[in-house]
Amino acid sequence: SCAVSSLSRSAATTTAVLALFGLSACGGAPGAGTDPAPVPKHSALQDFDPCTFLTPDELSSFGVEPQAKPFTQVSEQPGCAWDGKDMDLAVQKNAVQSLDEYEKTGTFDEFTRKQFAGRAGARMLTAGSKGQGICNAVVAAGGGIVLYQVTGNYPEFDACGEVEKIADQTAARLPQ
Fold this sequence. Notes:
Radius of gyration: 20 Å
Largest sheet: 7 strands, antiparallel
Distance between the termini: 34 Å
């Protein structure tokens, strides 16, 4: 047990926060005795790499080049994108928000709940993207979410149909 005679309000708050995450403020935890590093809310996605998730064969079958480029439009959603002739594809992770929390942000033209490969998810159009040839599939994974985005490179391209197909084919491999 820790022998701490007095705790400042911030130390008590830190200890309470650490206790919420099942960590001890007195030894056994990485960095014990120092200021704790930020504790991610959901850790199952911590080691998930959106940039290497899809195989080169999958990328080719989707009609995109296998070379990934960074694609992080919002800091808590790092990811990568791949360019193709008919469409561009991106995959991002968000280890901060669950599917329910993400839906409550309310910044959507559409958020239609549906399953992908047996997982909870949604087809989503961000605010202002309706009719722009961009569609997203959001899938619950590892306590957070993984976002797939397809952008069609010509007006008739079915971005929603394509992103749903890709999510259905690959979501079963996402972290639990």
